[in-house]
Amino acid sequence: MKKLKIPKFESSPIKRFFLTYKRILSISYKVNPKLLLYVTAINSFWGLTNLPVLYINKTLIDIVIRSVGTTDLITPLKTIGILIFLRALVEFARAATSNVNSFLTRAMGEQITAYLERAGGIKLNSLDIPLVESPDFQDKYKKIERESNNRLWGMIEPLSDLPNAIFTIVSGILPLITFNPWISLIVLVVTLPDIIVNARIAKKDYEAIQVLNPKWRMWGWIHWHMIDTRQFYENKILGNVNYLARKLFKIQKEIIDFQFLRRKKRATARTLASIPGYILSMVLNIYFFALALLGKITLGTAQLLYQGTNLLSLGFSTLLNDAVSVYENYLFVTDLTWFLELQPQLVSGKKIPSGIFTKGIEFKNVWFKYPNTKSWVLKGVSFSIGPKENLALVGENGAGKTTMIKLLSGFYKPDKGEVLVNGINIFEYEQTKYRHLLGVLFQDFSWYPFTAKESIGIGNVNKIRKTEEIKKFATLTGVHEFIEGLPKKYGNPLAKEFDQGVEPSKGQWQRIALARILFRDSKILVLDEPTSNVDPKAEEEIFEKIIELASEKILILISHRFSTVRKADRILVVDNGKIIEQGNHEELIKKEGEYAHIFSLQAKGYQ
């Protein structure tokens, strides 16, 4: 049994932390360096404004106390007016700073999310299909999709908040250090239990998400199936939406109940851990105001010291909680950096394929089974195709026909044997260049919600502006008239969800997909059930044109319709992972084997 291995980090935790931080700082700076610096500067300013507010409040209280009972109120009122004006300016500046910081932070988060969606899509498509298809990878990737975009900014934001925490500590410690430096140390010690609890909770949160990953995936799939418009017809006919809703409710309840208990424990732990801080605040408050009553310090000084203690506690808490936040988000972001650092395991070669074929395609004793499965899908398959030959593959579903195409495309590597193109093992080619040779229409082709022109032109993005050539292939596959009849013709969206959008039928989609692959103008053309939704008469016309178009190419056709297959130069009959017959139509009929038997069954269906 072939077990797929998921790549893991091999560096030490400390090294991994700094590598992760370096990577996300690089991403954030790349996304918008100015915005990152602005947010950091604004947070620094916020921390700096704490100290003047403290001293303004102290001075106001002391002036009021000294002026009680005096006959000259004009002088103190002038001073009080100036101080209140200054405090209003500082408070306005803090409010404005907070508003600016809020929208800049949100903008930065949105830009990072948008960047990661693009970068993640590119990375995902660069990876090997066996890795991407594995359940372990899917669990981890779905968690990355849910968590990492926000978590990445959750690591950056505390860093930008660091100056605020430092200046808040400075603002709180300056008045205290001249009065009694030991108070500062006591405040720090009392803050530690809250920090320790938060760090432990962060780790447990990450572990909990690991447990819930498969359930999250199923939640997402069921929800998508209920809201995707392409599923509505079957949902309505089968009347299965209530069943899906009940199944979704069960999974949601399991997740929500699990999360509720976890958050309840977290809230309880954090509440208990914060009690020492409240007790210290109460004790110091009584102490400072008792000193004021005894006349040892002024009431303004008592207020200053009390607020300084609170600021110091807030500063320590902010600084250490920022560190915890970095740690908490780091646990999730390690998954993102793991993903971004992944490299294909099917190593690409360096050879550049030639556009001139002296040899065609050869499967040499190919054995293959899918990862994490026991059964062989292909068993010693050997055959060759000439550089200008068209070949048909026929056989029952599951015989191994589409698997051959996946191996030819380099999506998987044979367990034994090799696949040669133009006499060279395909994995010796640079894979991006090699796939330029291929034009493959799979059964599960893509339905793009773009314009009709773009939906065909995306087959070769280098020629996507060549409208006349796009129309040529649309005409060849018989979809030109349909497109010309649309409100915006080739500029019409192919999805009802968009303005004036039209949803093509399955047959029309298939013709569009076929036109897209033909527009690619590749050396090797592979069509897997390309006209299964097209009527027989139109299919006949389309294939006559395709065979003519592919006269200088390699054409591989997979079809269950023998009326189409019989036109091929050579036919391979595949059964249970082996080639059991081969020859042209007439030769195989004369053999009176499996091909002749299936052909006769189809022929009876038309009698």
Automatic annotation (TrEMBL):
Record-annotated ABC transporter domain positions: 361-601
Pfam families: ABC_tran (PF00005)
Transmembrane spans: 165-190, 272-294
UniProt keyword list: ATP-binding, Membrane, Nucleotide-binding, Transmembrane, Transmembrane helix
Membrane topology category: Multi-pass membrane protein
Protein location: Cell membrane
MF-aspect GO terms: ABC-type oligopeptide transporter activity; ATP binding; ATP hydrolysis activity
Gene Ontology CC, one term: plasma membrane
This protein's name: ABC transporter domain-containing protein
Species of origin: Candidatus Woesebacteria bacterium RIFCSPLOWO2_01_FULL_39_25
